[in-house]
Amino acid sequence: xxxxxxxxxxxxxxxxxxxxxxxxxxxxxxxxxxxxxxxxxxxxxxxxxxxxxxxxxxxxxxxxxxxxxxxxxxxxxxxxxxxxxxxxxxxxxxxxxxxxxxxxxxxxxxxxxxxxxxxxxxxxxxxxxxxxxxxxxxxxxxxxxxxxxxxxxxxxxxxxxxxxxxxxxxxxxxxxxxxxxxxxxxxxxxxxxxxxxxxxxxxxxxxxxxxxxxxxxxxxxxxxxxxxxxxxxxxxxxxxxxxxxxxxxxxxxxxxxxxxxxxxxxxxxxxxxxxxxxxxxxxxxxxxxxxxxxxxxxxxxxxxxxxxxxxxxxxxxxxxxxxxxxxxxxxxxxxxxxxxxxxxxxxxxxxxxxxxxxxxxxxxxxxxxxxxxxxxxxxxxxxxxxxxxxxxxxxxxxxxxxxxxxxxxxxxxxxxxxxxxxxxxxxxxxxxxxxxxxxxxxxxxxxxxxxxxxxxxxxxxxxxxx
Length: 466
Description:
About 45% of the residues lie in helices and about 25% in strands. The protein is α+β, with helices and mostly antiparallel strands and about 475 residues long. Helix 2 (about 45-100) packs antiparallel against helix 6. It is elongated and about 160 Å long.
């Protein structure tokens, strides 16, 4: 082996190995200190890109989880307020039932019940106007989804509980009625005059009545007798045609006709049941209930009520906007959003058309003093309306918000694991790599030392030549 002075190849090799070992040790110490495998783009360029995408998605999902929790809290506030309105109306209904008992209740007591009903209506309006979540009004109509009835007067009422419409406004919603709702009807019609006396039993949706007719009773007389108990039975008769039908339509409406004694002319004993309306909303097969079509799904949850006697055909309405937009996903697409509508529960918006809860106060058409039966009808309709609103909100919370939150939490967990496998450092592996680097560095120092000792032989050789 030759001895050279200008270039010490062994020292250069040892120095290079020493520097490389030092860098390995320093990198390992940095990763241990930061717990990250990627501290700069040069550590893993493609891994950095993937991990940054995952980090961005994780931040969005984390915010979406918080959003769904806030949305659930809002829904719970509205539900609690609606439950309180329901309790108030239930108490007022009891007062109306008490006021029907004119024989056993004094005029002063009935007036006191009216005063209580007046205060209850004020309480309902107060709840409607003061229920908020932060600065968001919930029950005064400001949170309702706005619609435009394009098929008046056939479409009587439209209620949209939730929808996904993004910014596509106004949104046309086609409604198709394939079969109109029908009432129950007996087989046959009342004869113009009864040939013999008879006793019949009529049973309908509301109850049962027994009527007796003499021989020679005319169709008009029989119809008058049947109609006189229609509030008791829910069955009516047409004096002109002699038809005996249920007062209401739908599968819940029925007529049972039985001859107890004698022979009744024209109508055959039997049982008949009405049919519900049938059709679709926005191309989805709708559920019919009397004259109301409804669909419930992630894209649209709505009810459309038709006027009695509306024939089969095509109708439509428009969604104009409004509602509460819940961002339940990490993107701006309509599928990551749901728009929930909460209708006003002020007294004038609760109840039947023309007979709402505001009509039960003193001096109005359905006051507890003048028309407690009308007050009961208005309150029953209002309770059903509020129950429908609460059911829609409960379904949104249970099957949209809570389900979405659970799914997001699982996604966050799995994405976090993926991001960790790319970016986080394996501490045990880095400790082993650091120890290896330290050993190589120390070995490099010893190698340089040995190399320097070898170079000293040049000096000894030069000294021996003197």
